[in-house]
Specification:
mainly alpha; four-stranded mixed beta sheet; 4 strands; about 70% helix; membrane; metallopeptidase activity; Peptidase_M48; EC 3.4.24.-
Length: about 300
């Protein structure tokens, strides 16, 4: 087992195990329902499921980088960013990941990869332009905390069932089931999308709950590792404020990556954000960092 100096979080580990168990159980029920409903068509669904899982798990880092327009950079091309990554990796005793920059004015960062040896950490040009060195260090420490805690891989796997359910729903609505006219197949047109929709909603809510907690955990680990929670709080405040000034059409382009971002590109209103948001509220994150500051001061 790889060891590092990022503060462990038993609460996060427990939540990841519980989430994976529940989603695994949901997956078994889902496949069982497909076997009963689809009968002769189920091999096609299993093949589609296998292809999707392999593509998402093994190529998630490349897919995310390509979709964001990120390109890997050398230490000569981005000395400041590489310097920050080197310092955090040295502090946290973590293997250095590949480093990339995305040409986007939306100030943000993300890390992706199935394990520590296949990790990519990326910052946008908007983030690099706006943050001070100590603030950037806090953001990179936050992203590498996700890698150290292995929650990036867990989130990738956990979101797989939701993607599969969405694909099956489309097959049920627009695929061959629509063309059949006998009563049995007509029932499939209703039942398959219905089962898939229920599975999608449950898996969506489970991954959102895990996502919100893992962001708080990464904030805490980054603050303790760098010893400067105020710098991370400053970065959070600055990034959130700057994102609010970005045109909505630009934010919608990157919104699908919210779950992997340092700060959400778009968030709902107060009543809905707690349930559907990928991140806790800014106030909650700043409150936690304030408590960590007091904790470090007492030490």
């Amino acid at each position: 087992m790889n060891r590092n100096r990022f503060a462990p979080d038993r609460g996060l580990t427990t939540r990841m195990v519980v989430t994976m168990f529940l989603i695994g159980l949901l997956y078994v029920v889902f496949v069982g329902a497909l076997l009963v409903l689809l009968q002769g068509s189920w091999p096609v669904i299993l093949v589609i499921a296998g292809i999707l899982f392999i593509a998402q798990f093994w190529f998630s880092d490349r897919i995310a980088a390509f979709s964001m327009g990120a390109h890997e950079v050398t230490p000569e091309q981005a000395p400041e960013l590489h310097g920050v990554v080197d310092r955090i990796c040295a502090l946290g005793d973590l293997p250095k990941p590949r480093v990339a920059i995305a040409d986007s004015d939306v100030p943000n960062a993300f890390a992706t990869g199935r394990n520590q040896k296949n990790t990519l950490v990326c910052a946008t040009t908007g983030l690099l332009r706006r943050l001070e060195p100590d603030e950037l260090e806090g953001v990179i420490a936050h992203e590498l905390s996700h890698v150290a805690h292995k929650d990036v891989a867990v989130m990738t796997i956990a979101s797989f069932l939701g993607i599969l359910a969405g694909v099956v729903t489309r097959i049920g609505l627009w695929g061959g089931f629509r063309r059949a006219r006998d009563p049995g197949t007509a029932a499939l047109v209703v039942l398959v999308p219905l089962v898939s929709a229920v599975v999608y909603v449950i898996s969506f809510l489970l991954t959102r709950m895990l996502s919100r907690y893992r962001e708080l955990s990464a904030d805490r680990s980054a603050a303790l590792l760098t010893g400067r929670p105020s710098s991370l709080a400053s970065a959070l405040t600055k990034v959130s404020g700057q994102i609010a000034a970005i045109p909505t059409r630009d934010l919608r382009k990157v919104e699908p990556f919210n779950a992997f971002f340092f700060a959400p590109a778009l968030s709902g209103g107060p009543s809905i954000s707690r349930l559907l948001s990928t991140h806790p509220t800014l106030e909650k994150r700043l409150e936690q960092l304030g408590r960590i500051t007091l904790e470090l001061d007492r030490r």
